[in-house]
């Protein structure tokens, strides 16, 4: 462990924010969609900021189902990558500078995504949270919910399966 | 009067999100449509490989599915996606244009069923497939 890293409340916050920003800022598509993340500990809430380019049907107007699907897929991938990254930075107590120099993590790859459209996405910000239902070595299953005005009235939900990156096992070999 | 086939040609440009992704209508048929989308660096989902985000392909497939419903001879109203399942076969090749072809293969009084395939360099090399259900309103049912 690195001796010069300290662990004040401020250090912890900086480390976590640096890691999250590193992940999110590197993916061009998240900024194309206008997606940003709020963090409380390891819990993420995503916002897809409203913009006219998200509209599918201009007469309603309603957010394009494809944009909604893309939002949920993004949130699922970030969630999976973030949970892995979070464990790593916390275990190694990395500093913001060290995080900036880390190799960019290999992202999970989407296998399938099933989207249910539950109500019309109106012309305003959309929020999402992901829940990892299964996180195996090779496969993960993630559920995402999106809402706008009321947390309990979902705009859409999705379940996706993801292929996890091969882990380079750095832990000492177990006996046997 | 504008036929659905004529109107569908403007699908890609009239829908703001389709326009933002620079989608183009390639071919309109009866209950079927082919659309395409160019590669764009702003759509990259994996910075390590430059591969386009799956979400952009979902948007193309959803749009194309919607277009095929619109092109069904009995279609009487604008439809919305009820559900869509997308399977990703392989990553799209960076720099290559992506194509999607959708068929609305069955409609009931209120639901349209759609299949979509997507490819890049060759139709034999699928990058994704999708099945979806859309809301549907029969022309006849609308006027009654």
Summarize the structure in words:
- The complex is a heterodimer of chains A (176) and B (144).
- Chain A is 32% helix and 31% strand.
- Chain A has helices at 9-25, 28-33, 65-92, 96-101, and strands spanning 35-40, 43-48, 55-57, 62-63, 109-117, 126-135, 139-147, 154-163.
- Chain A is globular and about 55 Å long.
- Chain B contains five helices and eight strands; from the N terminus they run αααββββαββββα.
- Chain B has helices at 4-8, 11-14, 16-20, 54-70, 139-143; strands at residues 24-28, 32-37, 44-46, 51-52, 81-88, 98-107, 111-119, 126-135.
- Chain B is globular.
- The model of chain B has no long low-confidence stretch (mean pLDDT 93).
- At the A-B interface, helix 2, strand 3, strand 4, helix 3 and strand 5 of A face helix 3, strand 3, helix 4 and strand 5 of B.
Indicate the multimeric state.
Answer: heterodimer
Number of helices of chain A: 4
Classification by helices and strands of chain B: alpha+beta
Q: So, the CATH homologous superfamily of chain B?
A: Hotdog Thioesterase
- Number of E strands of chain B: 8
Descriptive keywords:
A: 176 residues, alpha+beta, 6-stranded antiparallel β-sheet, two-stranded antiparallel ribbon, 8 strands, 32% helix, 31% strand, B: 144 residues, Thiol Ester Dehydrase, Chain A, 25% helix
Summarize the structure.
Chain A is of the alpha+beta class. Chain A is 32% helix and 31% strand.
């Amino acid at each position: 462990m690195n001796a010069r890293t300290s662990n004040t409340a401020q250090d912890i916050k900086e480390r976590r924010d640096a890691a999250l920003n590193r992940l999110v800022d590197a993916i061009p598509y998240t900024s194309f969609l206008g997606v940003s993340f709020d963090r409380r500990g390891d819990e993420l809430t995503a916002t897809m900021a409203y913009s006219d380019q998200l509209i599918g049907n201009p007469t309603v107007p309603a957010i394009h189902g494809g944009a909604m699907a893309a939002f949920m897929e993004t949130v699922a991938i970030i969630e999976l990558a973030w949970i892995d990254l979070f464990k790593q930075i916390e275990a190694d107590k990395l500093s913001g500078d060290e995080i900036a120099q880390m190799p960019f993590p290999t992202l999970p790859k989407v296998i399938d995504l099933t989207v249910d459209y539950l109500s019309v996405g109106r012309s305003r910000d959309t929020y999402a949270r992901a829940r990892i239902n299964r996180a195996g070595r090779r496969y993960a299953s993630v559920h995402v919910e999106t809402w706008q005005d009321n947390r309990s009235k979902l705009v859409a939900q999705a379940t996706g399966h993801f292929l996890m990156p091969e882990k380079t096992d750095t832990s000492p070999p177990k006996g046997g | 009067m504008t036929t659905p086939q004529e109107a569908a040609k403007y699908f890609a440009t009239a829908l703001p999100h389709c326009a933002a992704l620079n989608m183009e209508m390639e071919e309109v048929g009866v209950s079927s449509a082919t659309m395409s989308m160019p590669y764009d660096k702003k759509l990259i989902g994996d910075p390590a490989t430059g591969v386009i985000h799956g979400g952009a392909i979902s948007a193309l497939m959803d749009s194309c599915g919607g277009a095929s419903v619109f092109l069904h001879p009995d279609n009487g109203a604008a439809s919305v996606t009820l559900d869509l399942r997308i399977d990703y076969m392989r990553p799209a090749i960076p720099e290559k244009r992506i194509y999607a072809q959708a068929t609305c293969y069955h409609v009931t009084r209120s639901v349209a069923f759609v299949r979509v395939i997507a490819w890049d360099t060759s139709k034999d090399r699928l990058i994704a497939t999708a099945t979806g259900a859309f809301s549907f309103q029969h022309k006849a049912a609308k006027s009654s």
